[in-house]
Structures are given as structure tokens and as C-alpha cells.
Amino acid sequence: MVALATPRVAGGVAPRRRPWREPSVLPGFAGALGFTLLYVGLIILLPLAALAARPWEHGLQGVLDAILKPRTLAALRLSFGAALLAAFVNVAMGLLIAWVLGRYRFPGRRIVDALVDLPFALPTAVAGIALATLYGPNGWIGAALARGGVKVAFTPTGVFVALLAVGLPFVVRAVQPVLDDLDASLEEAAQTLGANPVQTFARVILPALAPALITGFALAFARGAGEYGSVIFIAGNMPGVSEIAPLVIVTRLEQYDYAGAASVGLAMLAISLLALVAVNAVQVAMSRRGGR
Amino acid sequence: MSSPSVGARRVAGPVPGILLAVALGWLALVIGAPLATVLAQALSKGVGAFLATFSEPDALAAIRLTLLVAAIAVPLNAAFGLAAAWSIAKFEFRGKTLLLTLIDLPLSLSPVVAGLVWVLLFGARGWFGPWLEGAGIKVIFAVPGIVLGTILVTVPLIARELIPLMAEQGADEELAAITLGAGGWTVFRRVTLPNVRWALLHGVLLCNARAMGEFGAVSVVSGHIRGLTETLPLHVEALYNDYDFVGAFAAATLLAGLAVVTLAAKTVLERAIR
Lengths: 292, 274
Fold this sequence. Notes:
A: MetI-like fold, 73% helix, B: mainly alpha
């Protein structure tokens, strides 16, 4: 995205007024941009305008009342908290899987590589009922866990478990290209200088992968926090305990409380965007400190 | 990925073996086990019960609606992706970054919110709700709402495949064709489209899989009327909630099959691109 941005005039020299577009002999600009803007306007901007405007029908107090209700707060905490925890696990396991796929040759590697994307392609409702059954009292894993006294399905833990699958491909696909492009001579140099494999990994490889890991973390987190289909069947949906934020929106809508539903929706979008901005800031700071 | 990187090596020694086992074990747990559960449950009462699901009129109606929604949403998003990529990648103008940010925004949206926004606009108490009711047009709890929810969720998928590729390719070939006297449409059809056809197909595949499988956004705007406004994923939910597990997982198998076929086609395509 950054690479596509129009170059800014650097320094303090006041730029001469540039035309808003640079001339080109290529045809079709007006038509293509016109259709693009119309589409973005109708499909993205108009709906978002409604999301931004509808919560304030009962003033700021109305918005605060809707969001600060204990039931809503508990749901927001569960959705974002479980997404955060799952994103941390996804970073660790995603890194391991990207490493194994990139560095080792084993039979079936290509199939395994393709299967990593399954959570992208599998409809969330399918994943949802499968997880609820798998971890349910009679499921393959649920029955085994029950013997140990552990309950996953229909508890907040179930939300976390469901999000483990949802976020995994984001981390693997963010790390993979960087890992493949990593300069092997750096690793060889580290080893020649006497670093053991653990030191080489921690001091040479991990810093190079950090930006990609953070990107994957952010994507997994944002997707997990808003996830509905994979989670709703296994969550249990007990208000204040195992109810996720998107379900609160659905419930409000069923009661025709549009302002309340929009308040929660707007809060969710705001938190997600803030998290993405924060992650972006961390990456900028890291690339500055990294020199060059 | 397909070309062996410099550091690639065969599995030897205890550490790589352990790492490999943990990675594959995790994938089997997180991805393999749910997929196996779908199949096992769908076939738990035999092939007959499995197939019986698909002779139910409601299931057929759900399949038809799912195909219809994808047939509207995917071409529209493909046209949008091409138009957006043409204007953003081949021309220089101010406000590009803002436009790109807006196109990416639906990716940060919870699917439920992507459904909610249409209710806020067109629902009974929405901005345009009373007007639509007066005109006798039904959007929410009807097919148009399902299409809109699906489009909003999938709108960036094709554009994001095309924009970086077309930006990287630049406009030199198109400019050469124009200089040689080709018209605008000819340039687009004979120069631009062949250059991006694999990326376009890749985007269409992903967009289609997501459109046919969308649950959250569609669930909010559908109204869940059996045989009328139930897509296949919603039908899966309805059967599951009715304790018809064989039916639910049989319908889910169809969707899981779509996902696996999409992944296979995507993998083949990615090899063709490289």
C-alpha cells in the first residue's frame, strides 16, 4: 500500500499546486474510477456512515449505556481476550509450521502446505458445528477431556479453541515468504562465528521474521475478535460468561434496538482499527530502530 | 515455496524430527480433526441417510439460493476489482492511499457487523426502511439483503489480488498498444486481461468460496425463512439446531468439499503463476 502512494514532496519547499491527477494517454480513467468510487460509496461508505451515525440516537449517554452494560462488556472482553490469547498461540505455532514447511523436505509437504489455508476456505458454520461436536461430551476429543475433568465445549475456553484454527493461516502466510527470502549467508556467518543453533535462531532469524510475525498476529487478532460462525456453536452463549460480542449485536437487533446494536458494532470496529494502527506504529518504530 | 530454498534440508537428527512431529500434530488437531469430524458425522448413519439430505426440497432451495447469491456477488466484485485496479494501478492521482484503505476496511469488519449495517439502512427501522416499505420492496429478510451482506464481506478479495500485480506491471505495455493505434477496450481485452488472468482467477476462487460459505453477515439479514431465504450455511445451522446431525453434517460436507476443491484449484493456479 505504501509503495502505491503518490510520492510526497520532501523537505520544506512549498510544492507548486499539482493537478489532482497526472495526465496520461491511457483511456478509461474517468469510467473506471467513477465505477470504483460509486461501488465503494454504496457498498462500503454508505453502510459505514449508518454504523457511525445510528448509535447516537439517544446521545452519548445512550452509546455509553449500550457499551458499558455488564453483559456487553463481558462479551467484548471474551471476544477480544480470546482473540488475543489465540493470536499469541497462533504466532508460536504458525512460526513453527512455516519453519517446518520452508526448511524440511518430507513426503506430503505440498498437501500439508495447501491444507494450512483450509480455515480461509472452509465456511465458518461448518467449522463451528465440527468443533462443537469434536469437543462436545461425545466427541473424540471432548470425551477424552471429560474423563480428565476438563470441559471445553460450551465454555469460554471453547471460544479460544475455535479461534486457534481461524487465525493460524494468517501467521503462516505472513511468515512464509520472509522465511523463504532469508539470506542463508547470515545464518552461515552466525554459525561460523560460533553461534549455536538456538543463538542463530534467536539473534539472527527471529529479528528478521519479527515484522511478519507482528503482521500475522494483528490479522489473526482482528479476524478472531469479530468471528461468529466458528465460535457460536461451541461457545455456549451464556450471557456474561460465554457470550461473544457479535452475538450481543444479533440479540439487540432481534429486539429492534438498532442504536444499541450499532453502538456495539461501532465499538468493535473501533477497537479492531485501533489495534491495527498500534501494530502499524510498532512496525514503523521497529524498522526505524533496525537502522538502514 | 515450490523452489527449494537454500536452507532446505531433509529431516535428520532429533530436533527437526520433534519440530516436524509437533507441527504436523498441531495441524492434525486444529485442521484435520474438525474436517474428519464432518465426514464421520455425515456418514454415521450410512450413505443412504447422507444422500437423503439432498433430496429435501429445503436443502435444494438452499443450494439454489447459495449459487444465485454467488452468481451475483462474485461477478460484481470482479468488475469492481478490475475497475479499481485499472484506475489505481495504471494512473497517478491524489487520494489513492485513502481509497486503498477504504477498500481494505471490510477485512476488519466482523461479519455480523457487515450484516448489521444493511439492517441499519434498509431494515424496518432503518434509514430507508419506511420508504422501501411504502414502495413494496423487501431488502432485509429477503434475497437482496443476503446479496448485499455477501458483497460487503467479499469486496476486497479480488481487488487485493489485482491492484498490487497491475501496479507492478505498470502501464508500459498498454501505452505501447495505444501508441500503435489500439482502442481502449482492445488494450484492456488483449493486453491487460491476459496479463492478470491468473491473479483474477485466483481472486475469483477465493471470493466465490467466501461468498458461498458466508455465515455471519447473511445470518443477520436473512430472516431464516426455510426454502426462501436460507443459504446452505444457514441450512446447516438450522438442521444442527433441529438435532438433525446427519443432515447438518451432510450439508456441511458439500461446503467442505467446495473448500477442498477451492484449495486444490488455488494450489494448481499458484504453481502456474510461478
